[in-house]
């Protein structure tokens, strides 16, 4: 579904991505973890050509997005939902208006249909009663959920989540995890999740990738991570109070 082939990107004099290659399958939840500033957001941005590789290629369904024409690129981008780090809601619009925006801009759906769809996704994320509030009137966790509603409102094939649970209390964070899991189960959506939250990564990821030093140090299942003999992987797990082998039990589905 998404393929990186030997992608290199230097930013601010630093080789952020150094020959990164991987492939994400349709219907998969692929989680990217790693220390701050390693290039997780940069990796996501390459998937929708907000950034382009210095060398190497990025493919979406076999189509090289670096060489896509304006029209093709627009078409490719329409298949994505993007939850930006920080939420990025427009302050002067209500929650419902923010969520309706992609439908107003990108579709010719009738107003009643838009209202219905917006109501449904707000219900999904537990914000149906807050539809008419302004972003400044709701909490950080609610803003994240509103951003999530906006990312999925057009029923995309692929959703990119940049730090969906950061800054949230553990209970709200788990609600977001459940939403991501539920969408995968119900709609077979492909999700790429960037997170600092290893508990979240281990419970929702079909595969998890640890980005460090411009490349993936390890890509594998939660079990692969917990059983990894790699010292850097272990150090990363321990930094989040997850000790080797078995102190974390993967949620049984
Ligand atoms: N547009 C840009 N111009 C210059 N440097 C950039 C740009 N975007 C990112 N960088 C640099 O690239 C590196 C990786 O940034 P990125 O935002 O991908 O980190 P991250 O892994 O998402 O970190 P965090 O966990 O803090 O969000 C950083 O050193 C950052 O300063
Ligand atoms: Mg980031």
Walk me through the structure.
The protein is an alpha/beta fold and 253 residues long. It folds into 2 domains: 11-79 and 157-253, Rossmann fold (3-Layer(aba) Sandwich), CATH 3.40.50.300; 91-156, no CATH class. Helices cover 37% and strands 24% of the residues. It has 9 helices and 10 strands. The strands form 2 sheets. The protein has a 6-stranded mixed beta sheet with strand order 6-7-8-3-9-10, sandwiched between helices. The radius of gyration is 18 Å and the shape is globular. It starts with a strand and ends in a 14-residue tail after the last helix. Adenosine-5'-triphosphate (ATP) is lined by residues 11-12, 14, 16, 34, 36-42, 85.
Q: What's the arrangement of secondary structure elements?
A:
Blueprint: E1 2-11, E2 14-24, E3 29-33, H1 40-47, E4 55-60, E5 63-64, H2 70-77, E6 80-83, H3 95-106, H4 111-124, H5 140-152, E7 158-162, H6 170-187, E8 190-194, H7 198-204, E9 207-212, E10 215-220, H8 222-226, H9 231-239
Parallel strand pairs: 3-8, 3-9, 6-7, 7-8
Antiparallel strand pairs: 1-2, 1-4, 4-5, 9-10
The structure holds adenosine-5'-triphosphate and magnesium ion.
Adenosine-5'-triphosphate (ATP) is lined by residues 11-12, 14, 16, 34, 36-42, 85.
Task: Give a quick set of tags describing it.
disordered C terminus; 24% strand; 10 strands; 253 residues; binds adenosine-5'-triphosphate; 6-stranded mixed sheet; binds magnesium ion; alpha/beta; 4-stranded antiparallel sheet; single chain; Rossmann fold; 2 domains
């Amino acid at each position: 579904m998404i393929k990186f082939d030997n992608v290199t990107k230097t930013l601010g004099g630093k080789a952020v991505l150094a020959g990164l290659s991987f492939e994400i399958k349709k219907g998969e939840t692929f989680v990217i973890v790693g220390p701050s500033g390693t290039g997780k957001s940069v990796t996501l941005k390459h998937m929708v050509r907000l950034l382009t590789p210095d060398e190497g290629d990025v493919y979406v369904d076999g189509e090289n997005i670096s060489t896509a024409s304006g029209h093709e690129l627009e078409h490719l981008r329409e298949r994505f939902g993007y939850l930006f780090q920080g939420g990025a809601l427009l302050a002067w619009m209500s929650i419902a208006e923010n969520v309706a925006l992609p439908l107003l801009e990108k579709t010719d759906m009738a107003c009643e249909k838009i209202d219905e769809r917006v109501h449904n996704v707000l219900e999904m994320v537990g914000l149906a009663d807050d539809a008419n509030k302004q972003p400044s009137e709701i909490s950080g966790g609610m803003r994240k959920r509103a951003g999530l509603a906006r990312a999925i409102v057009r029923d995309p094939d692929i959703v990119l989540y940049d730090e969906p649970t950061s800054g949230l209390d553990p209970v709200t964070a788990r609600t977001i995890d459940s939403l991501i899991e539920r969408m995968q189960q119900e709609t077979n959506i492909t999700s790429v999740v960037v997170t600092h939250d290893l508990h979240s990564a281990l419970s929702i990821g079909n595969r998890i990738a640890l980005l460090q030093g411009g490349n993936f140090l390890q890509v594998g299942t939660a079990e692969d991570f917990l059983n990894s003999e790699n010292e850097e992987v272990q150090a990363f797990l321990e930094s989040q109070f997850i000790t080797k082998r078995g102190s974390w039990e993967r949620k049984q589905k």
